[in-house]
Design a protein that fits this description.
This protein has 315 residues and is of the alpha+beta class. It contains eleven helices and ten strands. The strands form three sheets. A four-stranded mixed beta sheet has the order 4-3-5-10, with helices on one face. The two termini are 29 Å apart.
Length: 315
Amino acid sequence: MPVIPPTGEAVAEMLTGTDLPADHLVAKVIPRMGKATVEKIAVNAVMAGCLPTYMPVLIAAVQALMDPKSRFDTFEVSTGSWAPFWAVNGPVRNDILINSSSGSLSPGNIANAAIGRAVGLIVKNIGGARKAIEDMGVIGNPGKYTLVIGENEEESPWPPLHVERGFEKGNSTVTVFFPNSFTQAIPLETNADGILNALSGMGAAPLSGFIINPTWAKILSGAGWTRQKVIEYIAANTRSPFSPARPASGTTPRPFLKPEDIMMVVAGGPGAFMALLRSAGGFNNTFVNRKIELPENWSRLVAKYKNLVPVYVRY
């Protein structure tokens, strides 16, 4: 199917989603250091099916992507097929209808799908990443189409992720890291011990992001577990795949993970499953958080576009 170039009117409408001038340079995108101006981001956003209300998220996402601590310079050109995972927090989730409940990572949610797709187009069209030339992924990764989720703050028993990372509750943020695998599991027992054992047995590695559904998060919280305590438990009880099955008698296995290697997002709907997105760490990389700056006309934009929802919602 041929690509239909965005019209000038569509791009101009997309630009209403930011107060920045069209020629403002947001970042230079690797691997070929293309200039990601606001206008070029808007062009790719139109092609991805974005609404103007997604522009503040995309601008913050590009800034986070190119933060040296994300090590996108390594993950983008690696043979390991790493995909950016985006966790969105704050009021913007509800303003633009980012799904944080049932099926958050499944197709059918305009914001979740289009934001991730737009970032992928920005990397290709502005950054110049070509398969088997700059992007050397051996197998590839379906997550590169889109891997966007909102934290289900309303159902979480813990303070939101961005608050625990130093932002104000009223701020909106995006957090990114680069997993190359996704797996799900259920606990064998529905008490705190069973949930903790399942989490620590899922095979986390530095860096790793867990998605725990609100039901299990509430059970853990009711038993006195904060998000940080859960993370510390996982770090202390996850074994390295390279360690012997049976440690030498009288020895204590060296911890494989550090708490800062792990991120945990409360999201998803009713059910038993929880998920792990596994990355790699140890080369000065970490989870990168970026505040989303909203334009002065934000309330008007939200009112204009908030009723644009997938057709199935209207059934």
